[in-house]
Amino acid sequence: MTSNASSTGSQFLSLHLLETLVAVLPVRDENGSPKSIVYGGTERHMITSQARRRAERVHTRDRANAGIGALAGRSTGVRTREWALITARELTSAHGWDSDEAVRTAHAVIEATGLKFGDPAKKTVANLTKVLLFAPSDAGERIAAHIHAHAEELRPWTAEYVGAQAAAAAKSKKGGRKSADQEAAEAEETAEGTAAADAKLPALSAATRAAVLTALAPRDAIDIALYGRFLAEIADSPNVDGAVQSSHAFTVHEAEQVDDFYAAADDAKLDRKKNALDFLDAADDAGAGMTGYQSLITGTFYRHAVLDRRRLRRNLQAAGMTAEEAEEASVAAEAEFVTAFVDAFPEAKKNSTASTGSLPALVLAFEGERPYNYAAAFQAPIDENPLDKGGEGPAGPAAVKRLLRHHSFVSRRRPDIRSGRVLTYDPQIDELLGTFKDPGATAVTSAEELTA
Question: Between the CA of residue 290 and those of 258, 259, 266, 284, 293, what are the distances in Å?
């Protein structure tokens, strides 16, 4: 089996989903408002692909770590700025290092490998890398094991490295306040100055740098192969072009938003008011503990994602798997990707809106030799007025009709589209599917059946 072919069918698996959400706020902008786009001349609510992808990735990772599903027990990744702290905790708990020494050594080793850290004067970010790094979850354990095994060499190196940094920092402070001209001149020489400062720091041994890069490499982490990663700071650390493409979800009709006024009760005040002996005491404790507004959205959303099966297999082989291992892992990854696409949901406001309990009204899956996005089916927004008033009725059933008609029309003109399957969790939609003469897809009863 080569990386350019798959026993599971065509190169691309296209997924399309319709879901109706009521009074939720799964993603918001910097002002706390719902995100939106203008499409077809009307404003639509939007749930960004970033929010969806993270929900799906974490859903897949958590199931694998819990021993559930097709990827049970397989390696997954963690995206964080805390790799130095994770490594230090491992040095402390598993190898008995002093906590301060562990943090200092892990920070120095990872920084000398090529990653930049936050401002050392700010405790909150001093030991965090400047960028999020998506790496296998056991990377910290591997780095810690190498550091401990080479402690005799790395302890004096760390002391020298940290000392050189401290000396350089002290030297830069001696100049005192600088004029605007001096600051401008130094700004022009930033690159040269940085290179000169780096040259004064003791170099990390080639063996240790290679060990850190190997630990941080994608290796067999399935979710890195699926969703990809980009790391610009270390040129010789491999980037991964993800096998999953995701679109932003948007409402198939015009956006509808409500600014919900809320009042939060103060339990202590209410208890005093309840037990007050006269009306004057009760009046002192009148009013809510806190009030405010929150924006909530309602609507039927269309979203789309596609899996590039060949890319997934290439990513896994590039990470070191044989063709046979990559094939087996890819089939399992595809099953979990589809499950996550159907079941996962962004967790913002989940407790106050129960948004994560939503189930899709319809999922359409099919294979092809290229991706197919059906957003054009909803360029004209659905008019939810009753049929006798010129509308299309409720958005859910109307969107299902549009989507399946669009798919049936396109599939008759694109011979590579095949193996269409539809899944619904809505009895009304299930009845509606029975009225289609040619929906271009076969009805299934589980997410597992959506893959070929």
Answer: 20, 16, 8, 16, 11
Beta strand residue intervals within 77-130, DSSP E: 77-80
Is pTM beyond 0.70 here?
A: yes
What separation in angstroms does the CA of 313 have from each of 77, 171, 218, 418?
17, 52, 14, 21
Q: Which ranges in 243-355 belong to alpha helices (H)?
A: 267-274, 279-284, 309-318, 323-343, 350-353
Q: What is the pLDDT of residues 33-79, one digit of tens each?
A: 899 999 999 999 999 999 999 999 999 999 999 999 999 999 999 99
DSSP 28: B
Decide: 70 and 335 in contact? Cβ < 8 Å. Answer: yes
361-408 pLDDT, tens digit per residue, is 999 999 999 999 999 999 999 999 999 888 999 999 999 999 999 999
Q: 362 near 422, Cβ under 8 Å?
A: yes
What does the alpha-carbon distance between residue 392 and residue 388 come to, in Å, rounded to a whole number? Answer: 9
Residue-wise DSSP of 235-261:
TTSPPB--SEEEPPEEESS--EEEEEE
Query: What is d(CA 291, CA 308) in angstroms, rounded to the nearest whole number?
Result: 48
